[in-house]
Amino acid sequence: MLSYQFREGVHIAFNESDVVITTPYATRLNSIQQSLHIDRPTDALKILLRDLLDRGVSREQHLELLGQLEGFYTKGLLSVELVGLEGAAISLNPVKSLLRRKNAPGGDYRVRFSRFVNVQPLVDGLEITSPLSSATVRLKDQRLFPILMQLVLACDEATLKEALPIDLRSHYADIISLLLSSDIAGVCDGQGVADIDQEAVEAGWTTEDLAFHCHTREQMIDVCRYQAIPTSNNTNQLPAKHQRIILSTAALPSPSRINHNLSFFQVVRERKTIRRYQEQPVTAAVLSDFLWHSMHIREEILCDPGLSRAYPGLLRPVASAGALHSIELYLCINRCIGLQSGFYHYDSCNHSLGKLRDLGEPCLQMLDLAAASTCRAPQVASVSPGLGQRPDVLVVMSARYGRNASLHQQTGLSYALILKDVGSIYQQLYLVATALGLAPCGLSFGSSELFEQASGLSSRLECSVGEFMIGNPLSTDGYGLRAGSDLRP
Ligand SMILES: Cc1cc2nc3c(=O)[nH]c(=O)nc-3n(C[C@H](O)[C@H](O)[C@H](O)COP(=O)(O)O)c2cc1C
Known about the structure:
Blueprint: E1 2-6, E2 11-14, E3 18-22, E4 25-27, E5 35-39, H1 43-54, H2 66-74, E6 78-84, E7 87-94, E8 110-113, E9 118-122, E10 125-129, E11 135-139, H3 146-150, E12 155-156, H4 157-163, H5 166-169, H6 172-182, E13 185-187, H7 198-203, H8 207-217, E14 220-222, H9 223-228, E15 248-251, H10 264-270, E16 282-283, H11 284-295, E17 299-303, E18 311-315, E19 327-333, E20 336-337, E21 342-347, E22 352-357, H12 361-372, E23 393-399, H13 401-408, H14 414-435, E24 439-443, H15 448-455, E25 463-471
Parallel strand pairs: 16-20
Antiparallel strand pairs: 1-6, 2-3, 3-5, 4-14, 6-7, 7-11, 8-12, 8-13, 9-10, 10-11, 15-22, 17-18, 19-21, 19-23, 21-22, 23-25, 24-25
Helix pairs in contact: 10-14, 11-14, 12-15, 13-14
The chain binds flavin mononucleotide (FMN).
Flavin mononucleotide is lined by residues 272-273, 275, 373-375, 377-378, 426, 441-445.
């Protein structure tokens, strides 16, 4: 028999003339937990509410209040558990405030797990989740674990029944209803695709992308889930400015304004990816301007002053979510007039380069990976795969994850915001490079392992998240425009 109980996070206040049910759900817009008001509840309803709080109830026990019970169920307020001879067997635990009860269809049908499920071992069983589901399912009785294997592929009723322990076979309809209602499993089409997966499979979503997307773009929040996330001891301890231990400092020439005479709109119009470089390498002066106008620290500020979560932020030419600026620039300098080749950290506070190591094997491999990922631009016959040149300078962006996590561990948005910051920096580097007459190219591929070897930092603390190439554009391919030379307004 199925037993219904209020899920974790539901609170009830019994007042004189009404009852207020606080749900575990809030929204990104309004973090106050949503609530339901019941005016003048009958005594029978009060008993039902108390029973749902204290111990489970069955539908049969409260036939006269089935409508109310169903209402709580569809609002995602009730956990449902099936008990067998060996205790709790399987449960459904809603995670969204909308749940639809589904039963097995009539006739011949096959069911399977969604392709996007994830199984997590917990102390009281295996929890099955999916980014598309409105509830999780927990297999509590180990005798049910074999159904995990059965439901990986389309499975008919007889096969699934056989996989159940004998005492639970008579509850087959309830078990299938829990699996279907949670959207953890679906009814298959002729190709063996579950109905719940159809659109995501057609669109080509990968499991990792769908989980990341759904997690970071959800509107409705299950407050309990966020409270359960262990918080780091490190909160607010990572300083805004990042100083590295370096071998030596290479001063950069002061930023200049010479030749920066393109209007902003000319720069926007002329911006394009250039993947071919001249013999003549970039100069330290141009590199200095490139870094200054992209990433130098203008000011250190206090964000959210007056709030307990006040934290140090930075202002730079480029924008960053929450002014966190957790992205650091590292430079693989292959060749640059006025600077030794090597691997450097950009000290965006002092506008200088801190040398970390000579251009050793990891750096050379990063440069080769950059050259190899240089592709034929869709719109011009510029470079074919395999013919890419090593750039004069490979800019590697790394993220200090802990800095974002100090603010966003609870919201779960840390990595999504890091990637958005990376996009913002890509565009800044493109525009500044164009204004300076450099050849810019953002890259899709990079290796966190190579960056770890080159930087000597654990990727758990600082990981590479983006790469960008620059050099002097090859003039013969029509790209070699210097800033302010040929460009018409
Ligand atoms: C995030 C991002 C990743 C990119 N990855 C690569 C890459 O791996 N190799 C490459 O040659 N170009 C890469 N590019 C450049 C694009 O191919 C280029 O922007 C696109 O062809 C449009 O050309 P345009 O920049 O000249 O307008 C990337 C651009 C961005 C913004």
